[in-house]
Structure formats: structure tokens, C-alpha cells
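Session log. Operator J.P. requested a structure for one protein chain; no other inputs attached. Running the standard single-chain path with C-alpha cell output.
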Amino acid sequence: MRRLSVVSISIVLVVFLALPTCAKEISIWAQFYTPTKTMQVTPANPYPRQALKILAERYKKLTDITVKIIEKPGTQDDRQWILTQMAGGTIPDIC
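Structure written below.
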């Protein structure tokens, strides 16, 4: 639980420091910390995650800035996905 708190605080600091003052929406690809679609524990989803989703909602309330959480297709290689996003000009603000 303590590790989750440290990660959560780190993500919030990164979002806050990387944020341009005039942005109304930022996008983030949180890799392993991307929220799961369901919080139900199953063999395929042994550790459901939702901390980043909660932080994004709280950040929206505090700053009126939307944090868009990007989901990468699970079948695609991380490096290749990032390179494709960069080439297309659609890379998340934080990844």
C-alpha cells in the first residue's frame, strides 16, 4: 500500500510539473499503472488498479484540467507503439 502511495504522489507531481499553464486536457500513458476496466479480481486480473483514475478525477476537481488516460493495445510492443505515436504526432503528453 505504501508503494502505491509513493507511485501515486510521483505521478501527480509529474503531471503537475509537466503541465502547461493553459492546457485544459493532458494525456498520460501509465504503462502498468493504467486503470483496469473492472475492479473484479479474476485469474486474468489478479491485481485490479484504479489509483490513477481516482487521482485524475481529483486533479480535475482541483484544477479543472482533464487527465486523459491512454490505453495501449496489449498485443503491441511498447517501444513500437511509442515510436508510432511519435511519428503520427499523437504521443501522450506523459509516458
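Operator note: Helices lie at 2-18, 51-63, 78-88.
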